[in-house]
Amino acid sequence: MDLKENYTSIKNQLPPGVQLVAVSKMHPAEAVQEVYNLGQKVFGENKVQELMEKHPLLPQDIQWHLIGHLQTNKVKYIAPFIDTIQSVDSEKLLAEISKEAGKHGRTIKVLLQVKIAAEESKFGFEISEAKALFQKYLDGGFPDTEVTGLMGMATFTDDKEQVKGEFLILKGLFDELNRLKTLETLSMGMSDDFPTAIECGANSVRVGSAIFGRRDYSK
Ligand SMILES: *Cc1c(COP(=O)(O)O)cnc(C)c1O
Description:
The chain is an alpha/beta fold. It has a single domain (3-212), classed as Alanine racemase (TIM Barrel, Alpha-Beta Barrel). Helix content is 39%, strand content 20%. The chain has helices spanning 3-13, 29-37, 48-54, 75-78, 91-103, 127-138, 160-178, 194-199, 209-212, and strands at 19-23, 42-45, 63-66, 84-88, 108-115, 145-153, 185-188, 204-207. It has an eight-stranded parallel sheet. The longest helix has 19 residues, at 160-178. The chain starts with a helix and ends in a 7-residue tail after the last helix. Bound molecules: pyridoxal-5'-phosphate. Pyridoxal-5'-phosphate (PLP) is lined by residues 23, 25, 46, 67-68, 153, 190-192, 206-210.
């Protein structure tokens, strides 16, 4: 697995202004360090425990993004250092993030995760729920968070038109909320569908296996 070749190839496919979140889940700290040494500063993990293991082993200027479902009782572990929590999927979780951020005198950036896939997904808001929560945020409900945008995952399918349709739904919501308060980040697209996501307006992509190689789920 040539990390340099993979990383360079992905970087070359991203237009200026599109952020890369390198998803390092299930890959060792050494691989993260290698990609960091190539200039990457933003990494994504989906499990608190794995993030807690890697965090002390790696440069402190890495911006860590949590991209997987987060239980409220685990927020306290990552609150001291997490840059962005992309997977906010309940009001209770957002309230807890605000509380823990406040304890550390920090503001934690968050994205609201929205269900856009046709397949039954466990996590994420319906469009109407995301709008309602964003309004509560605008009304001052979660003072130690900054809602900087939205995150979504399309259906896992080869049907490009379907994937496009789903991404465009999220782009529509992003534009709507962006008129109420300027948002920075529309996070959509993974190794298999990031070019489509960018076509549909994503300005942040979460790419794992196309950089780090396949994950070994047997371990
Ligand atoms: C694992 C994961 C990714 C990266 O997936 P790849 O297909 O390896 O690029 C992106 N987003 C989320 C939420 C993930 O869990």
